[in-house]
Write a structure and sequence with these properties.
61 residues, mainly alpha, 82% helix, elongated, transmembrane helix, membrane, cell division, Cell division protein FtsW (Lipid II flippase), transmembrane
Length: 61
Amino acid sequence: MDTKKLFAILLTILGIGGLVYTAVQILDSQPNSFKTLLVVGILGLIFFSSGIKLLTSIRDA
């Protein structure tokens, strides 16, 4: 497997994990953890979008 493809898959999985963690914590509604939710949610979104973009830009040889 190509290194770029493996890195893209890793970024996508980390992004999905961050977004799911944020969603679960929002549903638990702990008011004191707003900063943590904001940081994890933004990082999850960045990782997910960069992983998807990298996957779409890689051409199979």
